[in-house]
């Protein structure tokens, strides 16, 4: 008899081999054969909206790492539990591996463009997993060794073999993932892409946008620091050669642009602050970049948009969709099909080779990355990805402000100190920022903060506030912004669902 704990370890080793072999073989068959991504994408698609929202708010840009770890933990737990129950007559563990394999095949086949060949790695991996489990639980390593055998004792021998299979699983898994990545990566294509020469440059950024004497985020967010939110488990690898943009629906003429076709259009550059609807009050799912690209208006014009159309449903190569009011593409705000971000080709995880950027709207209704399709339609006929899950069909950005300094719980020495943060209200612009500091004596008065120079109504505005800390004890700083229409940021607390969080950001700190 093998002990349950040993059986459980055997189950985990068998699962590792099944996953690893599948991953390695998939690297040779093609990206659609990657069962790991297929299952992960299916999990993302089947996860209810509120749970997705929780993951985005809790883990932000690390949400996919969390998903991957969570899935691995669940797989290991199920493999261990079922293997511990495996007996010769009722092979619970083996059945669990086969069931997982069937689910993996189903996930692979459910993906766009998948064929029967794509399930071969999963089938082979599953078979290897079952074989390993049966071998480890067969008793072959624990049965009494022949007399005179001076090898390690049976228990140790089994542990070593189990560890060996765990290693095989890890190596084939990591090796397969790396190989698969190398063979599909568009990083070479991206490196070879020289951004088109800009015809209409963005005004230069004056140094006065950045308040002095306080460590605030940079007015322009670097590509490396820019938040990333999307439903893509594996970043789509789309080369310029394979990219095209199809415009269809309620138009006089369908048009399909190749990447080279874009050369006929004027190249513009524009700074736009992007904001995620899932950003909680005080959160960091907001960033400001210089985008290079083409006016969506220019691309749409030759198609001839019907007068009764009011929405453009943009679609990514991976099936994500966003519904944007036609006006937001055709009015003067300068919505872009962006190919460059901060003077570089778009990073692959920000949409290489092309994405949409629409000033004034949350990303979920506008900022489609890896965009390949624009369907001109109507809000009463089409529903985009997040709208189907309960988010609002329209997503104008709400006025918000954030405190970056001090950090929550920070100690502030007595004497002069400078606080600060950011405020945004695309595309109305920020006119004023006020702060209130409440101390041990009670509530303070609202005071005007100093503002960094206003760059444009489409970009955030940095603020700072000099304060003399005189009284020791616990304090709270609260901030609110006023946009250029004169509307003051609302104190009413709203959840990110369905159309963006509201409320005032406060931070507690101690004067010591
Ligand atoms: N293809 C695709 N594009 C997408 C998304 C997505 O899930 N898939 N998410 C949108 C959302 S919700 C936001 S907030 C922005 C974020 O853009 P970023 O990752 O470049 O910051 O991308 C938008 N574009
Ligand atoms: Mo978002």
TrEMBL record:
SUPFAM superfamilies registered for this protein in UniProt: E set domains, Oxidoreductase molybdopterin-binding domain
Pfam families referenced in this protein's UniProt entry, alphabetically: Big_7, Oxidored_molyb
Protein name per its UniProtKB record: DMSO/TMAO reductase YedYZ, molybdopterin-dependent catalytic subunit
Residues in Oxidoreductase molybdopterin-binding domain copies: 233-385
Spans through the membrane: 65-85, 92-113, 119-137, 158-180
Gene Ontology MF annotations: heme binding; molybdopterin cofactor binding; sulfite oxidase activity
One of the GO biological process terms: sulfur compound metabolic process
UniProt key word Zinc-finger: no
Keywords, alphabetical: Membrane, Transmembrane, Transmembrane helix
Residue ranges that the Swiss-Prot or TrEMBL entry lists as coiled coil: none
């Amino acid at each position: 008899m093998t002990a349950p704990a040993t059986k459980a370890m055997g189950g985990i080793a068998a699962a590792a081999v099944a996953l690893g072999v599948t991953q390695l073989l998939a690297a040779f068959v093609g990206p659609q054969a990657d069962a790991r991504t297929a299952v992960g994408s299916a999990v993302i698609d089947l996860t209810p909206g509120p749970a997705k929202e929780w993951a985005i708010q809790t883990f932000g840009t690390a949400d996919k790492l969390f998903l991957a770890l969570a899935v691995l933990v669940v797989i290991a737990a199920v493999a261990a539990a079922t293997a511990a129950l495996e007996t010769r007559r009722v092979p619970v563990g083996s059945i669990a591996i086969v069931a997982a394999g069937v689910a993996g095949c189903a996930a692979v086949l459910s993906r766009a463009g998948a064929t029967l060949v794509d399930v071969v790695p999963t089938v082979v991996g599953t078979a290897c997993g079952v074989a390993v489990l049966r071998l480890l639980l067969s008793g072959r390593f624990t049965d009494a060794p022949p007399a005179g055998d001076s090898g390690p004792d049976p228990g140790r021998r089994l542990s070593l073999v189990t560890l060996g299979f765990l290693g095989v699983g890890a190596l084939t898994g990591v090796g397969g993932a790396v190989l698969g990545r190398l063979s599909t990566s568009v990083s070479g294509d991206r490196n070879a892409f020289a951004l088109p020469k800009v015809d209409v440059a963005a005004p230069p950024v004056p140094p006065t946008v950045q308040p002095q004497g306080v460590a605030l985020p940079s007015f322009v967010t670097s590509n490396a620091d820019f938040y990333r939110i999307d439903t893509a488990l594996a970043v789509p690898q789309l080369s310029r050669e394979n990219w095209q943009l199809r415009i269809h629906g309620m138009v006089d003429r369908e048009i399909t642009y190749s990447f080279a076709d874009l050369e006929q259009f004027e190249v513009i550059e524009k700074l736009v602050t992007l904001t995620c609807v899932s950003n909680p009050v005080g959160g960091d799912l907001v960033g400001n970049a210089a985008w290079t690209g083409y006016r969506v208006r220019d691309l749409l014009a030759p198609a001839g948009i019907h007068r009764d159309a009011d929405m453009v449903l943009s679609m990514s190569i991976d099936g994500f969709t966003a519904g944007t009011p036609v006006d937001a593409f055709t009015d003067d705000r300068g919505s872009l099909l962006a190919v460059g971000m901060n003077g570089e080709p778009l990073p692959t995880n920000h949409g290489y080779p092309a994405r949409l950027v629409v000033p004034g709207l949350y990303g979920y209704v506008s900022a489609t990355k890896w965009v390949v399709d624009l369907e001109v339609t109507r809000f009463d006929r089409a529903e985009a990805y997040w709208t189907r899950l309960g988010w609002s069909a329209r997503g104008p950005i709400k006025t918000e402000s954030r405190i970056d300094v001090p950090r929550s719980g920070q100690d502030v020495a007595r004497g002069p100190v400078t606080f600060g943060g950011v405020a945004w209200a695309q595309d109305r612009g920020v006119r004023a920022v006020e702060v209130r500091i409440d101390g041990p004596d009670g509530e303070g008065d609202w005071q005007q903060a100093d503002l960094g120079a206003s760059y444009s109504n489409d970009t955030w505005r940095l603020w700072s506030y000099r304060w003399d800390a005189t009284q020791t004890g616990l304090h709270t700083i609260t901030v609110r912004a006023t946009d250029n229409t004169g509307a003051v940021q609302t104190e009413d607390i709203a959840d990110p669902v369905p159309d963006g969080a509201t409320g005032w950001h406060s931070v507690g700190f101690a004067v010591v």
